[in-house]
Write a structure and sequence with these properties.
The complex is a heterodimer of chains A (110) and B (119). In chain A, strands 2, 4, 5, 6, 9, 10 and 11 form a seven-stranded mixed β-sheet that branches. Chain A has a four-stranded antiparallel β-sheet with strand order 1-3-8-7, with no helix packed on it. The radius of gyration of chain A is 13 Å and the shape is globular. By secondary structure, chain A is an all-beta fold. Chain B is an all-beta fold. In chain B, 0% of the residues lie in helices and 51% in strands. Chain B has no helices and eleven strands. In chain B, the strands form two sheets. In chain B, strands 2, 4, 5, 6, 9, 10 and 11 form a seven-stranded mixed β-sheet that branches. A four-stranded antiparallel β-sheet of chain B has the order 1-3-8-7, with no helix packed on it. In chain B, a hairpin with a 5-residue loop joins strand 4 and strand 5. The termini of chain B are far apart. Classes of the chains: A mainly beta (110), B mainly beta (119). Chains A and B meet through strand 4, strand 5, strand 9 and strand 10 of A and strand 5 and strand 10 of B.
């Protein structure tokens, strides 16, 4: 079964830059997987940040950007703010209507 | 305004059945609707997805046979149901709409339904 991998945790200083990644247990992530990214704060429903690798969802600040780095999808936060402290999930479209979410990255801003 | 409104929290006993709902509004109910599970303190797990127009349904191998996803397009509502709950089904469940423009992502999310299964 396909496993989507994410760093369990990451920390960044306020104003700093952090890149979270989304990989596959076997193989490389490409744009063909339509990687998307979701932010979730405790007690809230997920919020869509990035789709189709690098397109920001409506209302998402431009400090969030998506890309492919090597064989993984990546979410970069440039100029991190305190309220960016959240859990971040990537999702990959595997085709035939099937999706897989990564295990999530808990981002701490301190 | 597009909205997905889920049914309220449920407390059930092991072995009981349950059907939770997700009602769409503010758009044509023709987009794929998916469900994810979030167990306490854990991540999002994709369960399955349904196309309201023809009830075409796809399941994660992890959830195939464990749950049933259905839809009543006449009332713009998707459902997630269990025939015999287990304590391990205790979780928050979210529905979400898959964008219909070929870009493949989930653009709107429900507020979540907390299911607690305990004897």
């Amino acid at each position: 079964q396909t496993v989507v991998t994410q760093e369990p945790s990451f920390s960044v200083s306020p104003g700093g830059t952090v890149t979270l990644t989304c990989g596959l247990s076997s193989g490389s992530v490409s744009t063909s997987y339509y990687p998307s990214w979701y932010q979730q704060t405790p007690g809230q429903a997920p919020r869509t940040l990035i789709y189709s690798t690098n397109t920001r969802s409506s209302g998402v600040p431009d400090r969030f950007s998506g890309s492919i780095l090597g064989n993984k999808a990546a979410l970069t936060i440039t100029g991190a703010q305190a309220d960016d402290e959240s859990d971040y999930y990537c999702a990959l479209y595997m085709g035939s209507g099937i999706w897989v979410f990564g295990g999530g990255t808990k981002l701490t801003v301190l | 305004e597009v909205q997905l409104v889920q049914s309220g929290a449920e407390v059930k006993k092991p072995g009981e059945s349950l059907k939770i709902s997700c009602q769409g509004s503010g758009y044509s109910f023709t987009y794929w609707i998916g469900w994810v599970r979030q167990m306490p303190g854990k991540g999002l797990e994709w369960m399955g997805i349904i196309l309201p127009g023809n009830s075409d349904t796809r399941y994660s191998p992890s959830f195939q046979g464990q749950v049933t996803i259905s839809v009543d397009k006449s009332i713009s509502t998707a459902y997630l149901q269990w025939s015999s709950l287990k304590a391990s089904d205790t979780a928050m469940y979210y529905c979400m709409r898959q964008d219909g423009l070929g870009t493949y992502y989930f653009d709107y999310w429900g507020q979540g339904t907390l299911v607690t299964v305990s004897s």
